[in-house]
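Exam revision sheet. Question 4 asks you to relate a sequence to its structure. Input first:
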Amino acid sequence: MPSLDHLTSWHSDWKNLRVVVYGLGVSGFSVADTLAELGAQVLVLAKNAEPEYLDLLSVLGVPALVGADAEKFETALTDFAPQLVVTSPGFRPDSKPILWASNQGLPIWTDIDLAWRLRDKVGRPADWLCVTGTNGKTTTVQLATHILREAGLRAEACGNIGLPILDCIRNEVGYDVLVVELSSFQLHYLGEIKPFASVILNLDLDHLDWHGSLDAYKAAKGKVYENVEAACVFNANDEVTIRLVEQADVQEGARAIGFTLGFPAASNVGYTDGMLVDNAYSPNRSNKEIECLAEITDIENIGVVTKHLLQNIAAASALVRAFGVPASAISRGVSTFRLDAHRIEVVLEDSGICWVDDSKATNPHAASASLSSFHSVVWIVGGLLKGVDITPLVAENHKRLKAAIVIGVDRSAVLAALADKAPGVPVVEIGSGEDVMARAVAAANGFAASGDTVLLAPSSASMDQFKDYSDRGRQFADAVKALSGGTRG
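Answer key, structure tokens:
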């Protein structure tokens, strides 16, 4: 395996390093663009690509193998003789290109690894606050970034969301702090980074088809705590995150900071008497004085107040407190923050029925957070289950289900779970074909009455019948509004 130990800085000699880049999405293009700027020799291999990116690569003088041409990758890569692979997390560990690189003894990085090495391009490198978990990553990253900006800091959300992280480190003005969302896929490939602080929000069954086992999934998530400088923030109500923080090899002096829905013990952030409070960083904590960070009335401005949302707010607050953010900035940040679309979003309230879009609930853990927030639910569920068993979710929530509308290619597994754990619940199966969501909404309308919530919380990925979870949510909202303008108008 070639040694790349000398490549630790933007100012290292990257010229003529032969690098193959797997993937040509937003992050893949940023990798190729950055390496070309550094003078490396780059070859891109991608399953598919936008014409815009191919045109830009042509301008940069970077060759690419795309689609059918990519099937000939072994010959092309052998001729190219790469010294490094930088992969999109979309390439599974058992994919042919990754196995080829492993068999060649090549180092395999992601854009995160590359950005860590190049972070000194503009003055003092920004500190990194890293966020992972099965659910809530994006909300936590966005809120933490919003609060940091309220504190007067130059902050940016990046990694698995927001700007490509390499675009951030190439920004000529620079940042004080980057809030980096990391998926389990990115963490699987991740080498050594040294975050200022990191948080694991929660851990539950997800992406088992990609990782191969729950243990491998947990191990990938746990890497976010390695080498942390100041604080490992963990979910005090989640035994797995507690164990992972206990096992982490951190820098000397790093603290373990918990977040909880209840009254916070020492070194925790939590809730009491309608307030988000800090018992970890309060300047008077030696005198057992807790500090108020936000009022519950501030949180109510964000949207539907769920257990999941409260946990995300506590986690984001604990993370930014590690960076020295004052309580006043957290209060301002929470009161002015708004959730992205498709996250427990009320689409319509009509005739006493509340129609809620939580298309972002792509796994059972997220769907459970939605279901537990409502008392009588007509549930639209199904899609790509990603190897996860939905039965425990149905068992946990069957008493609140008025009916279930089942969509998606993995319908049989969902139908079996409902038959086993919710036998008295009426079920409608929506077959494949056009207007899946319109048909599902119409079926839900047949069961819903005043006091009910029609909830799109699919507990599944969306790519079987929709472009992505946003497309699924938009189609739900469109169908609901069309229905309201018709039969309910």
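Marking note for examiners. The CA atoms of residues 102 and 108 lie 8 Å apart.
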